[in-house]
């Protein structure tokens, strides 16, 4: 990770209807599934997962098994590449990104029509120190996204069914909304962080998507254009995180997440007794934001014009890149709170509130 001057970017904004208090109260945290010793979601991820090693194959199987057995409406695709690294000589190291999607049934047969609320986290672990687990970096964020997917699955089905039965499925940005979860490989440097020794997976994926063209007359020209916003989770799971708003162009989305956090706190729905808000910049005007950002998996996408929401604390957790970044050092109330906040953000973005009988109004772009 490194600090870089901010580039200005274009972004597209969706207006949206806030989740009601009742909806917020119904958002679950994942509970025992985040147990670090035997929790169904997180425990299998707390092993070394260096690219091209058996540990990494195991966590890949964990992801694929989870989605294929528990969330069969989600598609799972691989995007593979190989590269050499400064630590592995002439050997080609495999980098395997997972692309997990849920989209309206009518866009499945029409490539280039859906827009995707896009969440990303990296699932590889750092080569050194030997035995490094990377619980915050980024095992816990991956588990949060697994929980997010199951939390919105049924409501998404209802939303798509409702749009379908209204007789006008598809054709607008709102009705063609889907979700994709990118579990990215090769984020970590093998030696030290440089432009060519870091973010191997996201460099490959962003390039492939930039060079893939959807059929003529598609709503979106390339898969990159189909990303409505790229929400990157990283280094989450230590106590007292503070995440600034990094980008003016997506500050409106940051504010929406900060509002969810403060509303959940006000309703007594969060467990952590945090020293301050996780998202302290919610009340700040966009033009007062700083101009530094942190190098991470979003960068190759950002440089291609994708709007980014970067959920990474500054300063980093104390355990960052040490052997202490393991399951026992996670602050579980904070992990579960993040899980709730991010899940609620997805529900709000995807307009699931429309399903509530009392909210008939509120059509948006
Ligand atoms: Zn790292």
Topology summary:
Blueprint: E1 3-5, H1 21-25, H2 54-70, E2 75-83, E3 93-102, H3 105-108, E4 115-122, H4 135-165, E5 177-184, H5 200-210, E6 227-233, H6 251-266, E7 292-294, H7 299-302, E8 308-311, H8 332-349
Parallel strand pairs: 4-5, 4-6, 6-8
Antiparallel strand pairs: 1-7, 2-3, 3-5
The structure holds zinc ion.
Strand count, sense and barrel status of the largest sheet are: 6 strands, mixed
CATH architectural arrangement: 3-Layer(aba) Sandwich
Specify the structural class.
alpha/beta
Q: Roughly what fraction of the amino acids lie in strands?
A: 5-15%
Quantity of strands, as a count? 8
* Separation of the first and last Cα atoms: 36 Å
Bound molecules: zinc ion
Number of helices: 8
Specify the CATH class: Alpha Beta
Low-confidence stretches: 1-15, 357-365
Strand order, main sheet: write it out: 2-3-5-4-6-8
Instruction: State Rg.
Output: 19 Å
CATH topology: Aminopeptidase
CATH superfamily: Zn peptidases
The percent of residues in helical segments reads 25-40%
Description:
- The protein is of the alpha/beta class.
- The chain has a single domain, classed as Aminopeptidase (3-Layer(aba) Sandwich), CATH 3.40.630.10.
- The protein is built from eight helices and eight strands; from the N terminus they run βααββαβαβαβαβαβα.
- It starts with a strand and ends in a 16-residue tail after the last helix.
- Bound molecules: zinc ion (ZN).
- The site of zinc ion has 4 residues, from loops.
